[in-house]
Each structure stands twice: as C-alpha cells, then as structure tokens.
C-alpha cells in the first residue's frame, strides 16, 4: 500500500525548510549523489577545486557506490576533488570499521582519484593526540580559512547517531562551541575508545553541511534534532553553519515523525497593494 503523502519515486519533498524527504534509502543516496555533482561543479568553477569531508555509516556506503557507478562517475572532475574526514575510529585503514577504508573500497579505487587528493585521519597511531595535531597541519596546508581562522570546507557530509551524536561528538562529552582546536580526540562514553574528529567550530565554518539520515531507527532522533525537542541539546543540534547551508536528506522511514511545515506565502509583486486583514466576525 502506498504511503499517504509520499512523493513520486526519485523526487524529494521538502517537508520543512532544509529537510528533503526521499521515498527510500536508495533514492536518498541518489539525491545525495546529485547534490555532490552539483556542488562539485560549482566549487570547481569558482575556486578550481572541491574540498570535502566524509563520515562513515551505511548511508554513505550506498552514496559511495552510486558515485562510482557509470551514471555518476563521469560527471565529476576527480583530479580536482580533495577528500578529508569528519571523524575516524582508532583502527588501521584495512579494518572493516575504518571510515577511510570504506570510502577507499567503495569509491576511490573505482574512480581513479589521485592518491595525493586523499587526506585520511591516521587515528590508529599510538599517540592519537599527536596524530590529531598532524592532521590539523594537513588542513592548514590545503584549506582556506574563514573570518574566525577556521578551515572552510566546501562540503561536509554527516550522519546522526541514535543518541544524537554527529562526527565523533557525543552527548555527555566535551562538545564546546568556543575552542581554537580544529581536531579533537574524544573518548566514546560506552567503550572509552578514542576517536579523532573535527571540532564543532570547523563543522560550522563549512560552506555546506549535509546530513544523510535513513531508517526507522533514526526517526525519533531526527525529529528531536530538527524540531529541537532535546534538553540539553545533543551535538547534532549544535551544527549550524555560520554563513553556509545546512540540509537534511532523509528517507521516508527516518522522516516519519517530523511535523510538516508549509512554505511561507510568496511575497506579493512589487507595487501590489497589501492584503487587508479581516475584522473579527467579518465574513470571507
């Protein structure tokens, strides 16, 4: 049976400002691929390169596969794209849990992107703090900075955990808005394992931040993040690009609990008389 209000296959509905809903996870990945192609062309046309930070998870894996397919592979000028990471686990690059490893298998090896354009977080090093310092040096080498002195990515792709974490910024951890650090090494509360992550000011300095959210298991947290229902707010709520664009791309299952908000009424043409407000009790 068709879902009431579902959009035709492949065409997203913007049910709230900045929230696009796709029929299923496959179409969500396709929508992300189309956006990536558009953003790549725009950034390369303006600045000669496209600087992207990636995250892990199942939804990006589907997106990687599409970008490496015959449909999308030839639409990107790969030698002008540079890949970085929003976060990484403290595992070797060959480990199944490595965010870099997933991108390498599903995307990089299939599109022939130059190795020099891939800038992974070496979070598996024994001294992860030193590795984070070194990664900040990589960012300083390749990225322009915003007015606050933070690196400015053209695009950061993020996910949202069921607990509201994003990148490796976790609830209950030291998620600070005011910090001069670009890269941090927080410990995951449940396991105590260290990770490497971009800090919140870096996420908020991006030109575009796009969250990819799929599955019924994310419906409650997506509603909490989009509609600001959490107290205290979870880290994903704190991602607010200062001068950039923030988008949520979700499938129907993840967006099931969101309250639709109609778009604002269009502004009247210039010179048109303002609509008169009806008096109380006045008939239409």
Describe the structure.
The chain has one domain: 3-Layer(aba) Sandwich (Rossmann fold). It has 6 helices and 10 strands. It has helices at residues 25-47, 58-67, 99-111, 128-142, 200-203, 219-226; strands spanning 13-16, 19-22, 50-54, 81-85, 87-89, 155-158, 183-184, 195-198, 208-213, 245-251. It is globular, with a radius of gyration of 20 Å. The protein starts with 12 loop residues before the first strand and ends in a 33-residue tail after the last strand. 39% of the residues are buried.
Secondary structure layout:
Blueprint: E1 13-16, E2 19-22, H1 25-47, E3 50-54, H2 58-67, E4 81-85, E5 87-89, H3 99-111, H4 128-142, E6 155-158, E7 183-184, E8 195-198, H5 200-203, E9 208-213, H6 219-226, E10 245-251
Parallel strand pairs: 2-10, 3-4, 3-6, 6-9, 9-10
Antiparallel strand pairs: 1-2, 5-8, 7-8
């Amino acid at each position: 049976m068709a879902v009431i209000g579902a959009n035709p296959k492949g065409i997203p509905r913007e049910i709230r400002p900045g929230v696009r809903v796709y029929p299923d996870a496959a179409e969500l990945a396709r929508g992300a691929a189309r956006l990536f192609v558009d953003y790549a062309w725009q950034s390369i046309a303006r600045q000669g390169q496209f600087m992207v930070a990636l995250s892990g998870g199942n939804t990006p894996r589907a997106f990687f596969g599409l970008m490496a397919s015959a449909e999308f592979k030839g639409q990107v000028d790969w030698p002008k794209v540079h890949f970085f990471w929003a976060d990484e686990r403290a595992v070797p690059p060959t480990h199944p849990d490595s965010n870099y490893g997933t991108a390498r298998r599903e995307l990089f090896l299939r599109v022939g992107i130059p190795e020099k354009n891939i800038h992974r977080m070496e979070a598996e090093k024994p001294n992860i703090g030193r590795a984070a310092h070194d990664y900040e040096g990589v960012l300083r080498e390749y990225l322009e900075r915003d007015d606050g002195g933070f690196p400015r990515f053209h695009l950061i792709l993020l996910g949202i955990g069921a607990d509201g974490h994003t990148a490796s910024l976790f609830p209950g951890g030291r998620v600070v808005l005011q910090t001069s650090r670009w890269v941090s090494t927080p410990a995951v509360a449940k396991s105590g394992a260290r990770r490497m992550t971009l800090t919140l000011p870096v996420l908020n300095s991006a030109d575009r931040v796009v969250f990819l959210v799929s599955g019924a298991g994310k419906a409650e947290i997506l509603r909490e993040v989009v509609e600001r229902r959490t107290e205290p707010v979870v880290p994903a709520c704190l991602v607010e690009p200062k001068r950039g664009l923030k988008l949520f791309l979700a499938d129907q299952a993840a967006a099931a609990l969101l309250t639709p908000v109609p778009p604002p009424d269009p502004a009247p043409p210039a010179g048109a008389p303002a609509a008169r407000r009806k008096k109380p009790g006045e008939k239409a």
